[in-house]
Amino acid sequence: MGWLASIIALGFLIFFHELGHFLAARACGVGVEVFSIGFGRKLWAKRLGNTQYALSVIPLGGYVKLQENPIESPKSYPNQPLYKKLIILSMGPLFNLLLAFGIYLGVGLVGHTSLAPVVGALTPDMPAIKSGIKVGDRIVAVNHTAIRDWQELFEAIQRAQGAITLQIKRDHLLNITLTPALKTTQNAFKEKVHTKLIGIAPAKEQVWVRYGFLQSTQRALSQLVSMCVLIVKGIEKLFIGVVSVSEISSVVGIVDFMAHQQNLALLLSVAFISINLGVLNLLPIPVLDGGQMVITLYESLTKRKLKGEHLEKLNLLGLALLIALMALGLFNDVRRLAG
């Protein structure tokens, strides 16, 4: 893809996040003073109406500055009810999740190449070879449910209970019944997982797979939920020490990763990074959207507004944590790229 295109793609993800805040503020009747991609000194700025649009020098995020004065103004953010504040704060991360959902949905509707459900190799002493399956067999159905690619074949085997019936196209159609073997392995988080295997590997043949709107929507929602769960679990494992801090990456690593992706892999990586931005921004860390939501809820429930100096200390603490994580990620990326 290239570094320049990767930076542009990452900038678009940030823009889309801030666009969520911006549109939510406008919908809630709150004035927006600045819409900036990046932080720090402004490289470019243009005022349209009451809002200044800007590109700033540090491309590590962006911000939407909401109107705060005069405090009694109906367009002032502090003057808004709790639900409007939470809508504005949450809409940035939600837009990132919506973007990922849209990518998954589009991939399903437009279609993509995938490995065909054709047997390319057999594992000795496994159910497939013992049941008479041969190299070159095309599996067209599992338990009388049609499958179109290798991924659907794998998922169907995992869902099945007990013995399964494979409909195979050879010279003719035939049914073969077998019981998958249960293998115990470790996932990326060093957790034991059980996988049902029949002992086949795919051929190199590819097929074009596309889905209707309803099925694409269901698959997109399932992928979105799965990725969110994976990211949340990854954060949890990082805090308890199962995942090494050497796995933390910075913007450099993200851009480098995207620069080496092509076509479908690129789209899916953009979706995954967008989900990361959405989930991470919901963490209860001051300066992030999640932290701001916690502070807003605290002030609303206690009817006490945090003092300016306390709020400043919280924001500095959150900023220090983010800078430390960015520095660690940059160190990891430089070491990896140099190696």
What does this structure look like?
It is a single chain. This protein has 339 residues and is of the alpha+beta class. Helices cover 50% and strands 23% of the residues. The strands form 5 sheets. A 4-stranded antiparallel beta sheet has the order 6-5-7-8, covered by helices on one side. A two-stranded antiparallel ribbon has the order 1-2. A two-stranded antiparallel ribbon has the order 3-12. Helix 2 crosses helix 5 and helix 6 runs antiparallel to helix 7. The longest helix is centred in the C-terminal third of the chain and has 31 residues. It is elongated and about 80 Å long. The model has no long low-confidence stretch (mean pLDDT 85).
Number of helices: 9
Can you tell me the residue ranges where pLDDT is under 50 for at least 5 consecutive residues? none
| Main β sheet profile | 4 strands, antiparallel
What share of residues are in beta strands?
15-25%
Mean model confidence by pLDDT: 85
Radius of gyration equals 25 Å
Number of strands: 12
Order of helices and strands: HEEHEEHEEHEEEEEEHHHHH
Q: Order of strands in the sheet with the most strands?
A: 6-5-7-8
Cα shape: elongated
Distance between the termini: 22 Å
Q: Which class do the helix and strand fractions yield?
A: alpha+beta
* Proportion in helices: 40-55%
